[in-house]
Design a protein that fits this description.
Rossmann fold; 53% helix
Length: 290
C-alpha cells in the first residue's frame, strides 16, 4: 500500500474543485501537501485554508512549472505522490470549435499532465517508490456529443497512464487513473454555460457529485493501489462493461439529440432523461464502486 502519512503529496490545479478537495483529503491522511495553480488569488485562499505549501504555476508553462516543483521539492522534500488535477473542458459542437479550443485543451489536459510527471518520475524511480495519480474523466472512456475537443484529451490521459504503469511498476512506482463524472466544481459551472443543448440534455438527470466524494475515492485508490479509480457505481459500471452497453447508449444518445433538434431548444428534463436514467439505473443495480 502507498502510505500517505508523512508523504509529500503534490497536487496540480489545487486551488479549487477536485484539486482543492483532494489536497484537503490528503492532508487529513497526514501527508505534507503542496499545491500549484495558475490563479494567485485562488491559490492564496487555498493555501490559507489548507495550511499547505503553495507556488503559483501554470502546467502549460514548462519553465514556470519546473521552477515551482523545484521550490516545493526544496521545501518539502522529494515528491512521493503526484495528483494531476489541472484541467479544463470547453464543450461545443465540432463545427463551432476553432483550432485554438483543441490546442488549449490538449496543452492543458495532456501536455500539462505529462510535463508534471516528467518532473517527479526520475526521483521516484531512483528512490524506488512513488505514486502518480492522473485525473482523466468518464469522458476518457465514453465520447459524448459536444466533447470532440475534450474527450480525446481524457482518452489520452488514460492511455498515457496505462502505458506509463508498465514502465514504472518494476521500480515500485504506482499509477492510478481517475475517472470522475460531472462534479460540482467551479469548472463545471463555467462549462455549463457553453454546453450545446444536446449535451446538457444527455447529462441532465445525473446529479453532479460533490468534489469531496471524488477526493475520497482518489485517496482510497491511492491507499489501495488501484490502477482505475471511479467515484460512483454508474462510472464503475461504464468503465467495466461500457463496450457491451455501447449500442444501447448510442441509440439513447441519438434519440435525445433528435428530440432536442426537433424542439429547437433544450429538451424538457423529464423526456431528455432516458439516456442518463438507463445508465444510472444499471449502475444503481449493483456496479461496485472503486
Amino acid at each position: 500500500m502507498t502510505v500517505l502519512a508523512g508523504a509529500h503529496a503534490l497536487v496540480t490545479g489545487g486551488s479549487e474543485g477536485i484539486g482543492l478537495a483532494t489536497a484537503a483529503a490528503l492532508g487529513a491522511r497526514g501527508a505534507r501537501v503542496s499545491i500549484v495553480a495558475r490563479d494567485p488569488v485562488k491559490l492564496a485562499a487555498a493555501r490559507e485554508r489548507l495550511g499547505a505549501a503553495a507556488v503559483v504555476a501554470d502546467v502549460t508553462d514548462p519553465d514556470g512549472l519546473t521552477a515551482a516543483v523545484a521550490e516545493l521539492r526544496a521545501a518539502q522534500g522529494p515528491v512521493d505522490v503526484l495528483v494531476t488535477c489541472a484541467g479544463a473542458s470547453e464543450p461545443g459542437r465540432f463545427t463551432d470549435l476553432d483550432d485554438e479550443a483543441f490546442r488549449r485543451q490538449w496543452e492543458l489536459n495532456v501536455a500539462g499532465t505529462v510535463r508534471a510527471c516528467r518532473l517527479v518520475v526520475p526521483s521516484m524511480l531512483e528512490r524506488r517508490r512513488g505514486h502518480l495519480v492522473l485525473v482523466s474523466s468518464v469522458a476518457g472512456f465514453l465520447g459524448i456529443y459536444g466533447f470532440t475537443a475534450y474527450a480525446p484529451t481524457k482518452f489520452a490521459v488514460r492511455g498515457f497512464g496505462e502505458a506509463l504503469r508498465g514502465e514504472v511498476a518494476p521500480y515500485g512506482v504506482r499509477v492510478s487513473i481517475v475517472y470522475p463524472p460531472d462534479t460540482d466544481t467551479p469548472g463545471l459551472r463555467r462549462e455549463q454555460d457553453r454546453k450545446p443543448a444536446e449535451t446538457a440534455a444527455i447529462s441532465a438527470t445525473i446529479p453532479p457529485l460533490p468534489a469531496e466524494r471524488v477526493a475520497a475515492a482518489i485517496v482510497r485508490g491511492i491507499e489501495r493501489n488501484r490502477l482505475h479509480v471511479t467515484a460512483d457505481p454508474t462510472s464503475a459500471l461504464l468503465l467495466r462493461v461500457g463496450p457491451l452497453l455501447d449500442p444501447l447508449l448510442r441509440r439513447l444518445e441519438d434519440r435525445t439529440v433528435r428530440r432536442v433538434a426537433a424542439a429547437g431548444r433544450g429538451a424538457p428534463a423529464g423526456r431528455a432523461s432516458r439516456w442518463a436514467t438507463a445508465v444510472a439505473g444499471r449502475g444503481a443495480r449493483g456496479a461496485p464502486g472503486s
